[in-house]
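not sure who needs this but someone in the group chat was asking about MBL fold metallo-hydrolase from Methanobacterium alkalithermotolerans so here u go. i didnt clean anything up, its just raw.
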Amino acid sequence: MIISTLMDDKKKEGSPLINEHGLSFHIHKEEYNILFDMGASEYFAYNAQKMGIDLNNIDLAVISHGHYDHGGGLKTFFKENKNSEVYLKPLGKYYRINDPLSPQEINLDIDVLEKNSLRLKYIRENREVLPGIHLISSIIQKYDSRQDNNGLYKMKNGKMVRDDFDHELLMILEEKDKIIIISGCSHQGILNMIETACSLFPQKHIKAIIGGFHLIYPTEFSQKNDYSTHIKKIGEKIAEYPVEMIYTGHCTSEKSYNILKEVLKDRLNYAYTGTVIYL
């Protein structure tokens, strides 16, 4: 299996690829080619071309949740690929609120979704969409992840409420004796994602966890010490699970990554734009 990072917030110095605030992975599993998320714009497609990946050969596309930095390239994908279905959960309108007087809309382009509705397949329950490729709609809520989603809201019944991320899904790639967890932002908590995977596949070890963890480090000085402890505890808890390797980036944030690295050491790596992972 080969997993290629088509888009991340960062790239290595000297890379000819384009980076932006967004996430996109190409997955080659046996005879299947899967696209997981599409970044914030058309640049994921540019990077795919530079990396020798033909988007027209994609068999299955997935959008992890309804934020622009994961599905902003959807219009470009529909231009590049004329056949593949796109799997996602039912979406709505989503907002980031830093200033209560000016909420920022961060959802996908509704017009693009409506114009291509026949190619959208909505996931409402756990489903094996191709052999060994599972999309998980129901995430176990063992750990509280609300403090990692401060400022994120959705529209519900005409009112703006805290986003519970019922629009988020998880992908699990199953092989003989192992699984690989692929997540977009893990808004429902990376620990809950791992717990869910272990519950569904109790006899299999986790070969890799790949994706963003949404551990944006707070700017308020008074919160920094407490948040550092919070991140360290997450790393210590991850270390308790049977996980061989972890590749993260995007919304994990550099500061949180460095704290996790102290705990997880060589098991943790950064998935820069252009990173290719062989499993």
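also Residues 221-239 form the longest helix (19 residues). if thats useful
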